Amino acid sequence: MVSIVSLLLPILISAVVVFIVSSIIHMFLGYHNSDFKTLPSEDQVMDSLSKFNIPLGDYMMPYCTDNKERQSQGFKDKMNKGPVALMTVLPAGQMGMASSLMLWFVYCVIIGIFAAYIAGRALTPGADYLAVFRFTGCTAFVGYGLALMQNSIWYKKKWSATIKSMFDGLIYALFTAGIFGWLWPI
Description:
Elements: H1 8-29, H2 42-50, E1 57-61, H3 67-70, H4 73-81, E2 85-89, H5 98-122, H6 129-144, H7 149-155, H8 159-183
Antiparallel strand pairs: 1-2
Helix pairs in contact: 1-5, 1-8, 5-6, 6-8
C-alpha cells in the first residue's frame, strides 16, 4: 500500500500538466469549434429572450413539474409543437475565465487524488511502471471521460462533441498515468 501523502507530487504535477495540455487543446487545436452551432436568427432570439429578464440558471422548455403533468395533453401538445430546448442562462457580458480555470485545476487535483487512492491501495512501493500506468490511467479516464456520456444520453448533446471531449479525457488520462508511473515511490 502507498499513502496518498507520498503521492502528492504526482497528483500536483499531473494536475499542472493536464491543465497545460487542456489549454493547448482548446486554444490551438480548434477541433471543439464545432461543438456548438449558431442559432438561426440569433439576434432576434436574443432580443426576444432579453425582454423576459430570465434569471441565471438551467431551464427546460417546455417544463413540467411531475409525471402527472408530463402525461397531460397540454404538455404533450407543447412537446409536439416545439421548440424543445435545454438552456443555461449565463450573466451578460464577457465570460471571465479565472474562476472556471481555477475550478478546472481543482478538478484535475481531485482526479489525481482518486487515481492515487485507487493505485495506492492496489500497488506497493516499487510497483512496475505499467501496473501504475494502468491503475492511474484507467481511474483518470473514468473521471475525465466516461462521465461525459451522460450529456448525450440524457441532455441530447451531440455525440460528436461528447466523443471529442472523451478523447480529450483519454489524453489527460494518459498524461496522468505517465506522470504517476514516472514518480511512483520506490
